[in-house]
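Sequence only, no structure available. Ideas?
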Amino acid sequence: MPSNATIINKATDPIQTGSLTYGLLNPEQARKFIQQTFEVTNLGPLVRHVMRTAKSGEIDKIGIASRILRQKVENTDDGYRAGVDTNVIEYATTAVRLPWEITEETLRENIEGQQFEAIVTNLMTRQLGVDSEDLYLNGDVDTSEEDDDYDFLKINDGWIKQITNGGHVLDASAETEMSLDIFYKALQALPNKYNNGRLRWLMSPKRAQEWELFLLNKVIGQGGAVPENVYTSPARIKAVECPSMDDNTILLTDPQNLIVVNTYDMKIRKTTEGKEAIMQDKRFYVVHFDYDPIIEELDATGIITNLPSLG
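Reply:
I predicted one. Tokens follow.
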């Protein structure tokens, strides 16, 4: 698969308008570009990705009921037919952009030479993937938290806010210490039909590491040992470490229940000319795209909040 730097160069080569090089990614380029931003994080490859042409619309949700088999009786037709349950999930993408610049002097003086431009482009698009996952998880248009340069989290509502408002919430503030009971209580809150082997615990790396240390200290102090699956798979459910998550929250769901909708309307602009570029001796770049993090089935999600400190 070509790198994002290669995709950007191919997209920006064909069209020149005055001093502005303009590129609108074709559907295949857009899909590859988005896919590579997902691959830079642990959670990204596990969630569901949907590409659409419209900035807002609906995604079909199709399912079937359980216990639909019937006894066969020869030469009879009782009129029974199993059906399909259909529903829709609404989405509305929010436009975002990633601008950056490189001075021509840096390109001339850097030991990497012209490769430096590709290195910076790949670093920027990697960070785009990290920042995007941060928004997918933590976005909150009503948050009081503010970024120094931009109201970062206010761009769109993420999965944590959606699950907190509509999923199964376990408030662990009354717990004096972390224990396996907390995981089992969260699991018991989910309907049993979703406990099908595809659930995952989503937690910060620090929470996962301190949970391991907590168990080791508990058991080793008594001369025992902890089976590895106890701290990597509490309640026999695997953990996924998500650096964007805070240490006081754990999510429980099938990652495929988490959906990111993007559109094919991705634009990449680059200019090396024009008054500003000439006066500052710089190259300017901007990547434009849009997204919406949605959840297919809120009833299949759980969240543990206000976890006790492990330290």
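The two ends are 43 Å apart (CA to CA).
Hope that gets you unstuck.
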